[in-house]
């Protein structure tokens, strides 16, 4: 399997590149995608130097307002040199105007699929004004935000509600749009800056471990929390294995179910957790239900209003949490333990549990109908 493309994003509000004289500078240190940007009158030497330095196949051309205008490919540079151009020749006539771009909101998995389909090694991220906000690069990190937080994905369940679909395949490995659900989560986490991922495994664990290995092909380090097949630990018990195996985190830990399809904001959730000063933060989605009848509203048995097929909504647990690492010691060892019991314990102690509302799409793949809907089959 090819390495996943690396997301090289600007920080929030940093579309475009600040200039210092003739040199292009990123707005803040640590964001290096600007090194792949050149001007239309820059030389072949400048373009080739960037290509060689970062081992890419293309550089991107921007105008004086830092808006994307085209791309210069390594193969076109070599052809020009063979035809007699020298290294100081302008790249202007080598610029290809047609450039494939992706939006800042496009998920890592979808971008990877696009790159493979079009056989691209680099794809720029551009906003509505064509300003470059980052670059997806295959196989190599030019620069990306790194988070100290670990992520734990619960992927040990049997998925019995899916019947025959999970007879020979763990539920998190069921494909949606050609890619396992769990792989989508891993790619999203890595694209958001998570470098250390733990996957809790039990049922058909070998399939998961064989697919992901040590995580290097996905741009991260992956370790496995292996449950005893005869003693499942539930949605919370595997977290105690971190402590038992000698892993100690100094930062809040992101925990999530392995059967979710979502592109939630990892930085947004972590930031909310810190700002609220919570010991736990629960991501919240909105469940809506439309009443299939006309609802009658009355006062003292007198009809005052008819509401046709109203929609009601409730906040629901999205199966995504941020947990302070000190809480892991409260989880019993080698016992079935729902994570909600940990939350009840916190509430009983008067500790703050924060809520964070997700604005992104969220799907919990628990039943055949939900899987079919995610696959676009209904």
From TrEMBL:
GO molecular function, one term: transferase activity
Residue ranges of every copy of the CBS domain listed in the record: 31-87
SUPFAM superfamilies to which the protein is assigned, alphabetical: CBS-domain pair, Nucleotide-diphospho-sugar transferases
Gene3D superfamilies: CBS-domain, Spore Coat Polysaccharide Biosynthesis Protein SpsA, Chain A
InterPro entries the record matches: CBS_dom (IPR000644), CBS_dom_sf (IPR046342), Mannose-1P_guanyltransferase (IPR050486), NTP_transferase_dom (IPR005835), Nucleotide-diphossugar_trans (IPR029044)
A Pfam cross-reference name: NTP_transferase
SMART domains reported for this sequence: CBS (SM00116)
Domain of life assignment: Bacteria
Keywords, alphabetical: CBS domain, Transferase
Annotated PANTHER family: SUGAR-1-PHOSPHATE GUANYL TRANSFERASE (PTHR22572)
Name of the featured protein: NTP transferase domain-containing protein
Species, as recorded: Amycolatopsis acidicola
């Amino acid at each position: 399997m090819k390495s996943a493309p690396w997301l090289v994003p600007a920080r929030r509000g940093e579309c475009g590149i600040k200039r210092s004289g003739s040199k292009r500078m990123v707005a803040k240190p640590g964001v290096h995608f600007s090194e792949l940007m050149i001007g239309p009158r820059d030389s072949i030497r400048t373009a080739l130097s960037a290509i060689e330095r970062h081992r890419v196949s293309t550089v991107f051309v921007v105008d004086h307002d830092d808006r994307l205008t085209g791309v210069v490919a390594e193969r076109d540079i070599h052809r020009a040199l063979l035809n007699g151009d020298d290294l100081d020749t302008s790249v202007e006539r080598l610029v290809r105007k047609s450039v494939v771009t992706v939006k800042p909101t496009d998920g890592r998995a979808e971008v990877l699929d696009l790159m493979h389909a079009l056989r691209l090694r680099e794809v720029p991220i551009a906003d509505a004004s064509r300003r470059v906000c980052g670059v997806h690069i295959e196989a190599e990190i030019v620069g990306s935000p790194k988070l100290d937080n670990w992520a734990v994905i619960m992927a040990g369940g049997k998925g019995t509600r899916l019947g025959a679909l999970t007879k020979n395949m763990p539920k998190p490995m069921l494909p949606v749009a050609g890619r396992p659900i769990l792989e989508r989560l891993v790619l999203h986490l890595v694209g958001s800056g998570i470098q250390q991922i733990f996957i809790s495994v039990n049922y058909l664990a070998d399939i998961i471990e064989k697919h992901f290995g040590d995580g290097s092909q996905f741009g991260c380090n992956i370790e496995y929390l292996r449950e005893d097949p005869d003693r499942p630990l539930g949605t919370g018990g595997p977290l105690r294995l971190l402590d038992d195996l000698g892993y100690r985190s100094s930062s809040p830990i992101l925990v999530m179910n392995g059967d979710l399809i979502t592109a939630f904001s990892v930085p947004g959730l972590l930031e909310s957790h810190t700002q609220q000063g919570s010991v736990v933060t629960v991501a919240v989605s909105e469940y809506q239900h439309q009443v299939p009848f006309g609802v009658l509203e009355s006062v003292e048995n007198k009809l005052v209003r008819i509401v046709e097929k109203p929609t009601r909504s409730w906040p629901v647990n999205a199966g995504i949490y941020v947990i302070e690492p000190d809480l892991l010691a409260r989880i019993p060892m080698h016992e079935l333990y729902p994570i909600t019991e940990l939350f009840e314990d916190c509430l009983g102690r008067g500790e703050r549990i924060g809520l964070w509302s997700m604005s992104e799409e969220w799907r919990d793949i628990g039943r055949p109908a939900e899987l079919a809907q995610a696959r676009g089959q209904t």
